[in-house]
Amino acid sequence: MKREHRLSERRNGPVIRINEAARKLDKAMQACGVPEGYKQPFMDWAIDFLWRKFKEERMNKRLDVEKKIRQLGIRFPNGTVNKDYSVSFRLPSDIISNVELYGAEELGLHLSQEDNGDYSLVGHPLTAGDFTLSLLYDTVEGEPKSELKIPIAFNPNPRDLWRDLPTDKDIPYYKEDSATEYIMVEAGKDGLAKKDIVAASHRGRSHAQEGKARDDHFKVFHCNESDWYIMAVADGAGSAKYSRKGSEVACNSVVDHCKGLLVDNQAFENAIMEYSSDRGSKEKRTDVTRHVIDIIYKGAMKAHEAVKRVAQANEEGKLKDFATTLMFSICKRYDFGWFIASFWVGDGAMCLFDEKNKTAKLLGTPDEGEFSGQTRFLTMPEIFRDPEVVSKRLRMTIVPDFTALFLMTDGISDPMFETEKNLNEYEKWEEFYNKLKNGFPEDGIGGVDLTDDNEASKEKLLRWLDFWSPGNHDDRTIAILY
Question: Where are the beta strands (DSSP E) in 83-128?
Answer without folding.
Answer: 85-89, 97-102, 109-113, 119-123
